[in-house]
Fold:
Amino acid sequence: MAASINQGTVINNIEFAQKALEIHDIIPLLQFTRLQDLLVSQQGKLDCRLSGGRDANNSAYLQLQVKGALPLLCQRCLQPFDFGVDIDLRYKIVRDEAQLPAPEDEGDDEDFLLSQADMPVLELIEDELLLALPMAPRHADDACAIAGGEAAANALKNPNPFARLEALKSK
Ligand SMILES: [Zn+2]
Structure:
């Protein structure tokens, strides 16, 4: 199925699942208007795939996969870095809210969508991206200029005692 995903893309999500349809698109970051304030650059694209089907219990589901990177600002060293995105989520489609599990019964690995004749696809993807973003984005410790500097400084302050022992032995 050749289709692209943009602001106007809507699907009938239950029909999409029942017919096991699929849409796949490489979406420019510019399309995600709610993300713009968080991005240091609008250069880049995300590989997005939405597919439908029925699980072993014959329940209709949607599967969303999003891969790529978001250019964010490291809150520690204030340098831009690529935050890796690898979303792979399955949503069970329910007909009405009565079928939603009570919050205390909801499993961590189960997501739900209400059946909807005109579900905006881009909005679903953007919601998940916003949820995936860290509160304070920053480099991994070994990739951050400032964290790396701190680690090096600590190593100087607290030399490995065994290294000192080795040095004594070799005298
Ligand atoms: Zn950093």
User: Anything to note?
Assistant: The longest strand covers residues 80-94. The CA atoms of residues 32 and 73 lie 17 Å apart. The beta strands are 10-11, 22-28, 45-54, 60-73, 80-94, 111-114, 119-120. The first helix runs from residue 13 to 18.
